[in-house]
Structure formats: C-alpha cells, structure tokens
Amino acid sequence: MSAQPKLPTGSAHALKDHTLVPYAPQPGVIYDKRPAKRPDGRPAPGLFNAWIVLDNPTQFNSYTTDMVKAVIRAFRDASVSREVVAVVFTGTGDKAFCTGGNTKEYAEYYAGNPQEYRQYMRLFNDMVSAILGCDKPVICRVNGMRIGGGQEIGMACDFTVAQDLARFGQAGPKHGSAAIGGATDFLPLMIGCEKAMESGTLCEPWSAHKAYRLGMISDIAPALKVDGKYAPNPLVWTDRYLDEWGRILHGEPKTGEALAEAKRTLARGTVDLSALDERVDALCAKLMLTFPECLTKSFEELRKPKLESWNRNKEDARAWLALNMMAEARTGFRAFNEGPKDDREIDFVDLRQRLAAGAGWTERMIEELIPKAGGKR
What we know:
The protein has helices spanning 65-80, 103-110, 114-132, 149-155, 172-175, 183-191, 193-202, 208-214, 256-268, 274-288, 292-302, 304-324, 328-338, 348-356, 363-369; strands spanning 29-37, 43-54, 84-91, 96-98, 138-142, 145-147, 159-163, 167-169, 206-207, 219-221, 224-226, 229-231, 270-271. With 377 residues, it is an alpha/beta fold. α2 (103-110) crosses α13.
C-alpha cells in the first residue's frame, strides 16, 4: 500500500470549499485536527480526527453563548472536511466534559429576559442539530462530569467513551429548568421510559458503570491509578451485587463504611486519562476501516429516532424555556450563581407552600427564596 494518500485528478486547489463560514479560533473552544491512526498505531498520512474541545475548566466546561457558536462552526467544518475520519467531542481536564449552559451568564444576563434567552436557545438547538447532522461519526469522550445540557449534547453524539470516575445526569428540576434540550427526546430511546423518568426528574447523577449497564454509553476506560496501577472507581459497586431486596447495585454508590474506605482510596490515587485516549483512538481506527459513504448513510439511518423526536419538539421546548426565564429559571439560576458554595438550591418546600397559598412570582419572593450566606434567606 502507498504511504501517501492519492490525490484526485487535477490540482488539489481546484476542490470546492463547502464551509459556510471558515473556522477561526474562539476562546473557550479548541478545534484541533489530530493525525488518524490505524489499529496498530501507525499514522495514516493525510487523514485526521477532528477534536472539538470545550475549554472552560474553571467553570466545569460549561458553554457560554460565544462557545455555542464556536461549537456549531467547528462541527460544520469537521463535517465537510474531506480528510476528517471522525469527530471527538470532549472537554479540558479530568473534572468535567460539560455541565451545561454557563449559569453565571444565565443568572446575570438571561434571567428575566425571555426574549434574549429565546435567541440563545436558537443557538443551542443549532448546536444539537450540528452534532446530529454531522457527516462524520461523533464520539463523546467523557473526561469527567456530563451533567445537564452537557448530558444532552453528549447524548446527541453517536458513541460515548467515558473515564471510570465520570458521572452522568440531569439538573433541570433542581435548578429551575426542564431537560427538554434533548434529554426528554433521547433518554427514552436509549434506556427506556422508566429509567428516563428517573434520570430526567430526580436529578440524581449516575456513575459511568450504571450508565454503561443501562445502555447509555458504549465503553468505560479506567482512570484512577493507586500505587501506580489502575483501580476501578472505589465510590461505586463495580461488580454485580444484590442488596437485601434483590436490587442490582452494579454502578450504584457505596454507603457507610464502604464509602468511607472508598474516599480514602480515592484520596491516595491520581487520575490518568491515557487509557481513555487509547479507547477513543481504537474506536476511531475501527471507523476508519469502512467505506466512508456507506458509513455516513448508516449513521444517518441509525440517528433517525433521535432526529425525529428532536425535530418534533425542539421549537416548542425553546419557547417554553424562554418564558420560564421569568419565573422558576430566573430563581433557580440565580440561586445557583449567588448562593453559598454548599447551598445553591432554593427551599422547595417553602416555594410550594407559597404557591399553594396563591403567591405570585414577585421580585420580593424570588429574593426571599435565594439562599444567603449563613443560611439566611
């Protein structure tokens, strides 16, 4: 086999440019074309995997308005790039892939401005559609938490490969929103209606092992090294255990003394994502060994259940989320942004009691619901 790719007949400069807007570097998003590798690790000259990296680690890679626009442009570029085999969508560091929209921006700009948030949600919807419509397979490399809107853009991807310590879940009803940016479309398809209901309403994060067991993700890579060797996530049951009621504990959090011991083990270890990168590279290599157009058509067909549900609901969801910025979202996002580090949720019982008594969403009520330092509201 030739070591160099064969160029089409005529000058390469004669090829048409199908990009809508040429990609330019943007703060908060890294777009990097990395050399593609064969399954044996040898490079494949002239071929690349496009890495789209959310780069806002101090805010757990939450996306700002400008970051959303950059992600859309990056996916568009990767989709039409002839030399790109696959797209790897990930985040900087080992704490989070993405925790959703930037709550500081939400609280300080969009709260109370439904007309502005409606335009923002147009961009968010376009980001999800850019992932679902990419002409290349999309792998979500989960380097840490995948929560809220981060979970939704992750589920829009074709594959998920996660590090062992990652957590997955929704946050909407705890922080003034609803998981209608994709989760309510994708979760029932991926894990069934009952488990989708659990994830979308209770907002309790799941371990990578539970997500894998339920079929939400494709693969898990070890990440925690203790005494120089990989060790499974000590915080959860990583084998199939049954409790006294016969419920499966595989992937569920440990409690009591088992949890205390797990925390001691975690404190002794360090996080190493090299195994995660190996799994991602291996998957990209497998995808490369296919007919490209047949692969694209296969993805187009397999994405149809997600797309049909997403396209049916996204505009109604956008309108509701915008209007909700006048009430619950306005309160929840401000509480998360302004509340003490250990108290970022409102008193839900107090809220329900007020509403049951006929209270309206006044500025005074919102201020009284937001947690304050010292536990005062």
